[in-house]
Design brief:
By secondary structure, the protein is of the alpha+beta class. Helix content is about 45%, strand content about 20%. The strands form two sheets. The protein has a six-stranded antiparallel β-sheet, with helices on both faces. The chain has a three-stranded antiparallel β-sheet with strand order 1-3-2. Helix 1 (about 1-20) packs across helix 2, helix 1 crosses helix 3 and helix 5 packs across helix 7 (about 175-185).
């Protein structure tokens, strides 16, 4: 019952915040109640809490609310994630040129990786990545990159178990995934060996920002017929090299004495 009650309050708070996503004007309690179809006293209580935490700001003279400065923090974090696309793109073009394969850029969103940029291969036979497509973390190269630099408990709680199996190559055991993530940290690259699509292979590497956080993941992908075991070994250093160049452009400075953060 407590969970349901809390969820109800959260839903109402979200409804109130949604009002400010639709208007730049200051809004009073009565107007908020009308727009959200909530009780005036409920709106007032929630508005007070949101104001106390900086999510709303109240003009005491007018008795009206506007969006709070706390959201600037989230906006800054979001813009940093989105700016990586602009910074990474010229390096992605070079990576496509030297490897001949499709190049992808992904960011972490909750328990999934989201593709925010893609440059297609010039080959007739190529893989297609849809911008905005969301993929699991445990069976994709870009996803494993994010997991590799998180602590074990975070990874365990982020990834739902048991794992869904997409192909015969999908890792479905958390212990095996842990071993693979340790290898990602050792080599600096992650592989998807036909784990989401049996005919597609992928090599991914982390992009670090100035705060030593994994800001994004860059990868190349191609059909199994071209990305043979030998070819993957040849391409690993190139993916890592261009990921490091993007990281440098993001303000990352290598320091072996400081840990990287997922």
């Amino acid at each position: 019952m407590k969970i349901k009650a809390s969820s109800g309050v959260i839903d109402k708070a979200v409804q109130i915040l949604d009002v400010f996503a639709q208007t730049e004007n200051a809004v009073g309690v009565t107007e908020l109640a009308g727009m959200t179809h909530l009780n005036i006293s409920t709106v007032y209580r929630i508005a007070c809490v949101l104001t106390d935490h900086g999510y709303l700001r109240k003009d005491e003279k007018k008795g009206k609310y506007t969006i709070g400065l706390k959201f600037l923090k989230f906006n800054s974090m979001l813009m940093n994630k989105l700016n990586v696309r602009e910074i990474a793109y010229p390096f992605m073009e070079k990576l496509r040129t030297v490897t001949g394969e499709s190049v992808n850029l992904a960011i972490l969103d909750g328990n999934e990786a989201v593709y925010i940029e893609h440059i297609e291969s010039n080959h007739m036979l190529r893989t297609f990545t849809v911008l905005g497509n969301r993929v699991p973390l445990y069976c994709t190269g870009v996803g494993k990159v994010f997991c590799a630099y998180m602590d074990e408990d975070t990874v365990y709680h982020l990834i739902k178990t048991p794992f869904s199996s997409y192909t015969e190559n999908t890792l479905t055991d958390f212990t095996r995934l842990e071993k693979e993530l340790a290898n990602v940290r050792l080599e600096g690259v992650a592989l998807d060996n036909g784990e989401m699509d049996i005919d597609v292979r992928c090599i991914a590497a982390p992009i670090m920002d100035s705060n030593r956080r994994v800001s994004a993941s860059v990868s190349i992908s191609g059909p199994r017929s071209r990305l043979t075991e030998q070819r993957i070994e040849e391409l690993k250093p190139l993916v890592k090299k261009y990921a490091e160049q993007i990281s440098g452009a993001m303000g990352f400075e290598f320091d072996s004495n400081q840990p990287l953060i997922g």
